[in-house]
From TrEMBL, chain A:
Lineage of producing organism: Bacteria, Bacillati, Actinomycetota, Actinomycetes, Glycomycetales
Gene Ontology cellular component annotations, sorted alphabetically: plasma membrane
Name this protein carries in UniProt: ABC transporter ATP-binding protein
Main location per the UniProt record: membrane
Topology term for the membrane: Peripheral membrane protein
Gene Ontology terms: biological process: peptide transport
Sorted UniProt keywords: ATP-binding, Cell membrane, Membrane, Nucleotide-binding, Transport
Classification via SMART domains: AAA
A GO term, aspect molecular function: ATP binding
Source organism superkingdom: Bacteria
Length: 354, 366
């Protein structure tokens, strides 16, 4: 078994809410990511997906802080490094070169007062990779043009444009092109298709498939769109209230979910084919970070909950052991009682978007 | 001030020939260009100010010719002779209709011939004003530059260190400078520095230059002029620094939360580049128009400052012209002051187009 490209151990992230107070947004995450894999982080708004994504690159806003754990990356040169031990300059060089991120709402990802080509120039020049090659204007133009063509944008039209002259879909593509400019090993995508219309979503997803096949980067994408997860991921991790509560191959998660919350999410998706059953929603609301339930955080909303669920925090339990961290693991005391309510007679790939 | 709306000629030109390399196409591009429209708007504002000034002067009680004639009369001239001499000195025909006078006035405005000063009839008004205006523009301009450099950099630094002791101290100073009028602050500087501590050679610093220093393009003259202008410059910089500082801090704080700054960090750009072309450039955008606004306020406020510091600029000139009932000078001074503010704001707007590409597109879409 090869070494994972990213190995997360016991990662916790807190946000300061006052002088001495803070809330824990992400707690005790353990995750191994292998080269070429595509992992989807799914969950409701506020479950800590984006915080975890930002944490993976140490990009948390000022009030956020990684309180414990380690983030070990295997770099391009083969060495392994703990991201949390990196100094400022080392971290700067690591970002975008080893791991890049495509952000939620590419609308505002570009500096409004400079041209698209300047974004490429700044990125290429500040990383001075390319074997000591000087990034002249012509060199930048050639490289940026090549990248834009891989995401099917017309370089002549886009390079000299200002961000406000591009549509949402074009900006998202341009951002993806920018993200792969330094050929990173890991790409974190935070809701890459939110705020785009269906056709544009479709073609972005197509693009990501192609790029992954071509460049072979490892992908972590954050979404609340199960359809997208089914389409792009080979592994899925469900998050609830700041913890991963179930993880497994896409097949495990969509056909035999073992956590009542994951099952609830899938039951809340309208199938495209067949009868239109009444959609089931999960009763109640996600807990506030300030008043987290004891034991399993999901127990107040869970139909299977017993007194035992309120006691200790429930750890992930391995159900099947498969190589390359494709094992199915769940944090539920009653996982053997969980079944999908209705039999999906179509594959999850054909379910509609949430 | 509303921008002039697109008039019929543009539509006709567009209908006659498609926009392109034709003569009318060029005309159309000039017409729709932002700079052209903005200049047209400035000319309109200057015209409006001039006309209002003309009307005010015209309908104000007290005929300048009567006043001059009265002065000459009491100096021993006969009444009719005094009237004739006075009418010769002013640049308009007192017997013509208001319209004729107005046209005459506009013609004078365009040719920079605004008559002669009543108090020193041998000098044209233009020459008279030009003797004072550069000194005020120099002091105000230097004050604005000083305030911009200090205000923007400290404001930005405070936003980067939000919540720190530095931030609290600078924000308090900024509020203090904005809140307290600059003439009170500079009076306090003079009183404390000169009267109480005795370290500020205020008496030597009054006026434009030290007696004996000849005007010319040499360091001695410039050094001396600067020495005499230091107090006015500081006075002008006070309020502007406070307001630039507070505005820049607010703007930077907001820009720092923008996605493109987070993305720039994620892209591993050098911190210097991020603060310059990602944070600084965007945070400056809302602050720059304030420079033009401050310019207007300061030139207007120069009347008080120059009086307090005994700096012979256009403010002092205006004060004495008003008390001498020197109408042509007052009229010209008001028009020139307004014009300089309009031009300052025009320059600021044209600069803004250079750094914010979005403005241009909006103008063309209109």
């Amino acid at each position: 078994m090869t070494e994972p490209i990213l190995s997360v151990r016991d990662l916790s992230i807190a946000y300061r809410t006052g002088r001495k107070e803070s809330v824990t947004a992400v707690s005790g995450i353990d995750l191994d990511l292998y080269e070429g894999q595509s992992l989807a982080l799914v969950g409701e708004s506020g479950c800590g997906k984006t915080t975890l994504g930002l944490g993976l690159l140490r990009l948390l806003p000022n009030l956020g802080e990684i309180t414990s754990g380690s983030l070990t990356y295997r770099l391009k040169d083969g060495s392994t490094q703990d991201l949390l031990a990196m100094k400022k300059e080392q971290l700067r060089r690591f970002r975008w070169n080893e791991a890049a991120m495509v952000f939620q709402g590419a609308m505002n990802a570009f500096n409004p007062v400079i041209r698209i080509i300047d974004h490429f120039a700044d990125t290429l020049r500040d990383h001075d990779c390319g074997d000591g090659k000087k990034w002249t204007k012509a060199a930048v133009e050639a490289r940026a043009g090549e990248l834009l063509e891989t995401v099917r944008l017309d370089p002549d039209r886009v390079l000299q444009s200002y961000p406000h002259e591009l549509s949402g879909g074009m900006k998202q593509r341009a951002l993806i092109a920018l993200a792969i400019a330094l050929d990173p090993k890991v790409l974190v995508l935070d809701e890459p298709t939110t705020a785009l219309d269906l056709l544009t979503q479709r073609s972005i997803v197509q693009q990501l498939h192609e790029l992954r096949a071509k460049f072979g980067f490892t992908m972590v994408f954050i979404t609340h769109d199960l359809g997208l997860a089914a389409e792009l991921a080979d592994r899925v991790a469900t998050m609830y209230a700041g913890s991963i509560i179930e993880t497994g191959s896409a097949r495990d998660i969509f056909y035999t979910p073992k956590h009542p919350y994951t099952a609830g999410l899938i039951n809340a998706v309208m199938p495209v084919k067949g009868d239109r059953p009444a959609l089931e929603s999960i009763p109640g609301f996600p807990p506030s970070l300030k008043a987290m339930p004891s034991g399993c955080a999901f127990h107040p909303r869970c139909e299977f909950a017993t007194a035992a669920c309120q006691g200790e925090r429930v750890p992930l339990e391995l159900l099947t052991e498969r190589p390359q961290a494709m094992d199915h693991a769940v944090a539920c005391l009653h996982h053997d009682r969980v079944r999908l309510d209705r039999k999906h007679n179509d594959s999850p790939k054909e379910t509609s978007r949430v | 001030m509303t921008a002039p709306t697109a008039p019929p000629p543009q539509q006709r030109a567009a209908a006659a020939a498609p926009p392109g390399r034709t003569a009318s196409g060029v005309m159309r591009r000039v017409w729709t260009s932002y700079a052209f429209r903005r200049i047209l708007q400035s000319v309109f504002v200057i015209w409006l100010v001039s006309t209002i000034t003309f009307l005010l002067m015209h309908f104000m009680p007290g005929d300048p010719i009567e006043i001059m004639a009265g002065r000459l009369n009491s100096a021993g001239m006969s009444h009719d002779q005094a009237l004739a001499t006075a009418a010769n000195i002013v640049n308009y025909d007192p017997d013509a209709s208001v319209w004729a006078q107005y046209l005459d006035f506009l013609k004078g405005l365009v040719t920079l011939d605004m008559g002669n000063s009543l108090t020193s009839p041998s000098k044209t008004v233009f020459d008279h004003v030009m003797e004072y205006l550069p000194w005020t523009l120099f002091a105000v301009g230097a004050g604005i530059v000083l305030a911009t450099v200090i205000g923007l950099s400290i404001g930005m630094a405070a936003a980067y260190r939000r919540g720190s002791a530095f931030d609290h101290a600078m924000t308090s100073i900024g509020s203090f400078l904005t809140g307290v009028p600059n003439y009170i602050l500079i009076a306090a500087v003079v009183v404390i520095g000169y009267t109480v501590l005795g370290i500020l050679p205020f008496l030597d610093m009054r006026g434009r230059v030290t007696a004996g220093v000849e005007p010319g393009f040499d360091p001695v003259f410039f050094g001396d002029a600067l020495y005499h202008a230091i107090l006015p410059i500081i006075a002008f910089a006070f309020t502007a620094t406070g307001s630039f500082l507070l505005n820049m801090k607010a703007a930077t704080t907001e820009v720092l939360t923008e996605d493109y700054v987070t993305v720039a960090r994620a892209r591993g750009l050098k911190p210097g580049r991020i603060s310059r072309s990602y944070v600084g450039r965007n945070a400056m955008l809302p602050v720059i128009p304030q420079v033009a606004l401050q310019m207007g306020t300061l030139v207007g406020g120069s009347i008080v400052i120059e009086q307090i510091l005994d700096y012979p600029g256009v403010g002092q000139m205006l004060m004495s012209a008003i008390s001498d009932r020197d109408y042509p000078v007052v009229q010209a001074a008001v028009i020139i002051l307004a014009t300089s503010v309009v031009i300052a704001s025009l320059i600021v707007d044209l600069v803004l187009v250079k750094i914010d590409p979005r403005i241009k597109t909006e103008g063309q879409d209109a």
